[in-house]
Recover the amino acids of this structure.
């Protein structure tokens, strides 16, 4: 199975900050990496697929980069609505696997 | 508007069974692959099962293989998860999630990437004596 490791597990940031979250795969997954945002009590929402493609309706302050085993989600200017938990997910092979999550909190 | 509505969750004793349903609307159900994803209380996301658009192909996580079965009824726009031999560690919110399709301009085809672009609100399954 491909293990997905996210870092950090949590971070504190202020509105307007540039925030980056890292996801590392235990083996190469090409570009088959997606990012999700989840708020408490709600279902996850797709932000980015295929490493860097922005899902419809997602603000352009979100971006994704990387390839192979190392990937990054960047929020260029953190907004109040962005405080949430973020997950990466690989779809290179089954079982599909998620990272452990990164909780973004208000500083 | 795409809608996925899960039902069938509840409290069940260890060793018991439950059948979850997911009613889909607002899109052509027969075109899309579907999945079940779960989240234990206070924990992260765990993929459970996948089913192809026709229903011919299925895959499941090792943690549920042989106990859970995913199926679909395309005539009823519905997805199902039959859960048998339930364990305490199966306690979670279960989400149905649609497999995303995206347009590939190089081929002119719709392609799947394994991402999940629409999710239901989830149904809670609690396994406890």
């Amino acid at each position: 199975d491909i293990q997905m490791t996210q870092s950090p597990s949590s971070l504190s940031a202020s509105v307007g900050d540039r925030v980056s979250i890292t996801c590392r795969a235990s083996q190469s997954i090409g570009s088959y990496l997606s990012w999700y945002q989840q708020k408490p009590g709600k279902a996850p929402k797709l932000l980015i697929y295929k490493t860097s493609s922005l899902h419809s309706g997602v603000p352009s302050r979100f971006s994704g980069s990387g390839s192979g085993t190392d990937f990054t989600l960047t929020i260029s200017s953190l907004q109040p609505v962005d405080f949430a938990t973020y997950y990466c997910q690989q779809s290179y092979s089954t079982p599909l696997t998620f990272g452990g999550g990164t909780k973004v909190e208000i500083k | 508007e795409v809608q996925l509505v899960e039902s069938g969750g509840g409290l069940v004793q260890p060793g018991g069974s439950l059948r979850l349903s997911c009613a889909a609307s607002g899109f052509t159900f027969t075109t899309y692959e579907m999945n079940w994803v779960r989240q234990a209380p206070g924990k992260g996301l765990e993929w459970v099962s996948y089913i192809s658009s026709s229903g011919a192909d299925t895959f499941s996580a090792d943690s549920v293989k042989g106990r859970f079965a995913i199926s679909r009824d395309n005539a009823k726009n519905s997805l199902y998860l039959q859960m048998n031999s339930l364990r305490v560690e199966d306690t979670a919110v279960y989400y149905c999630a649609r497999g995303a399709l995206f347009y590939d301009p190089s081929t002119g085809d719709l392609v799947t990437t394994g991402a999940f672009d629409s999710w239901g609100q989830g149904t809670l399954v609690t396994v406890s004596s």
Chain A touches chain B at residues 1, 32, 34, 36, 38, 43-46, 49-50, 53, 55, 87, 89-92, 94-101 (CB under 8 Å). Chain A has a mean pLDDT of 97. The first strand of chain A starts at residue 4 and ends at 7. The CA atoms of residues 31 and 103 of chain A lie 24 Å apart.
